Amino acid sequence: MRYLSTRGGVAPVGFADAVMMGLGTDGGLLVPETIPRVAPETLRAWARLDFADLATEVLALYVGDALPRADLAALVQRAYASFAHPEVTPVVSAAGRHWLELFHGPTAAFKDVALQLLGNLFEYLLVRDGGCLNILGATSGDTGSAAIYGVRGKAGIQIFILHPKGRVSPVQERQMTTVLDANVHNIAVAGTFDDAQRLVKTLFNDLPFKTARQLGAVNSINWARILAQTVYYFYAWGRLSGGDPSTRASFAVPTGNFGDIFAGYLARRMGLPVGRLIIATNRNDILTRFVATGRYRAGAVYQTLSPAMDIQVASNFERYLYYLHDEDPGAVRALFASMEQKGEIAVDAGRLERVQADFTASAVSDADCLAAIRAVHAAAGYIICPHTAVAAQAAVAHPDAVILATAHPAKFNEAVIAAIGHPAPPPPCLEGLLEREYRCAELPADPAALRAFIEQTLAAGG
């Protein structure tokens, strides 16, 4: 399996190089040369597998000969051994709905499913091939802590994680900043998540700096993360269908950076019988507006009760545009030139029909988010986080859809208390978190300041 850039400026590379490269050197995102198709009889067999064995099967289709099969299986087993639930991503029923619980990893958020794997994969490749890796990423909440927990203390890796100062929950902030391993560097950026993400992309697009400092990506621009998240769509379908390929499953996905919903789209292209993919956004509704109108134009970033979705520029959207335009990198380059010159991307009526066949989308207010938390708790005593609540509200018209429960509600107890009057009990990984020692630098939203911070930190030995 080889990988190409959505913008066409990268010679085909293997899986290992794609993982280590992260963002394409031409500014595009890496995608597989072909998407494997999974036959119905394979789906039946996969439905009987536990999560780790299923992950090995899905990943093997994309890894090719980059890793021996036994090594891949061992990496996967090690990644998911740290999860608190034996099913890793169980499907539970409550309040008349199915909930795909993705929060049983070490940081109580769905990002753990991908980042525990990616951390082990990075370490494996660095030990095997030599060298070092300096990870640079921005987070709107959960990616940062999951990435940090995935690589903390690992040899040959330094990690620099940016978050928007004051715009993540207190629990999310402390999950990052209380990790005091010498290879972990937290940075609070003055501005929004989009400002922090812009800094990261600026440094990745500075090719001499990226090459000299061996920068790597850990957020959802890294293909391995998308791939790992695809697994739980297959897993949920198998648990609900019993392996019957005639059974379709729909999914409602809290959506900010478009990575998790794109993983569902990838699963469908691979042959998973997916019905509707429901994009659930909060007031930051750029993706909902795109599905409705075919126009993608960033607006102001609003602070909401679901902060991980307080995003206007969705990093993974470029991958979808690549497939929407029939894998034409020239078309993708033209779209992003339009974004830079006119501030928007627009698709024609024919492609808008395809978008609306691929996705349903709905924007949810904070008031409706709280109402959804309240209603689910009243019906079943089940507590959901505000991001999960956005998805539940967006899927009201689709009662059979599986709701992706993306974070443990105790990470967002301010919203939970506002909805039901008391906090959600914390899982063991969150107990005492706000009382721990923490460490964090603060920087302006200036690429030169970030570049200097990284240079100084690495010059000082990490």
Can you walk me through this structure?
The strands form 4 sheets. This protein has a 6-stranded mixed beta sheet with strand order 3-4-14-9-10-13, with helices on both faces. The two termini are 35 Å apart. 52% of the residues are buried. It is of the alpha/beta class and 462 residues long. It is globular, with a radius of gyration of 20 Å. α5 (111-129) crosses α10 (223-241). Helix content is 46%, strand content 15%.
What is this structure's SSE topology?
Layout: E1 3-5, H1 15-21, E2 30-32, H2 40-46, H3 51-63, H4 69-80, E3 91-94, E4 97-101, H5 111-129, E5 133-138, H6 142-151, E6 157-164, H7 170-177, E7 184-189, H8 193-205, H9 207-212, E8 215-216, H10 223-241, E9 249-254, H11 259-270, E10 274-281, H12 286-293, E11 295-297, H13 317-324, H14 329-342, E12 344-346, H15 349-358, E13 359-363, H16 366-380, H17 386-394, E14 402-405, H18 413-420, E15 441-443, H19 447-459
Parallel strand pairs: 4-14, 5-6, 5-8, 6-7, 7-15, 9-10, 9-14, 10-13
Antiparallel strand pairs: 1-2, 3-4, 11-12
Helix pairs in contact: 3-4, 3-10, 4-5, 5-6, 5-10, 6-7, 10-11, 16-17, 16-18
What descriptive keywords fit this protein?
Rossmann fold; globular; five-stranded parallel sheet; alpha/beta
Beta-strand percent range: 5-15%
- CATH level-3 fold name of the domain at 91-107 and 223-429: Rossmann fold
Tally of helical runs = 19
Mean pLDDT across all residues, rounded?
94
- Global outline: globular
Give the termini distance in whole angstroms.
35 Å
- Overall structural class, as computed from helix and strand content, comes to alpha/beta
Query: At CATH's second level, what is the architecture of the domain at 91-107 and 223-429?
Result: 3-Layer(aba) Sandwich
- Provide the gyration radius in Å: 20 Å
The helix fraction, in percent, is: 40-55%
Please give the CATH class of the domain at 91-107 and 223-429: Alpha Beta
Physical arrangement of strands within the biggest beta sheet: 3-4-14-9-10-13
Q: How many strands?
A: 15
Low-confidence stretches: none
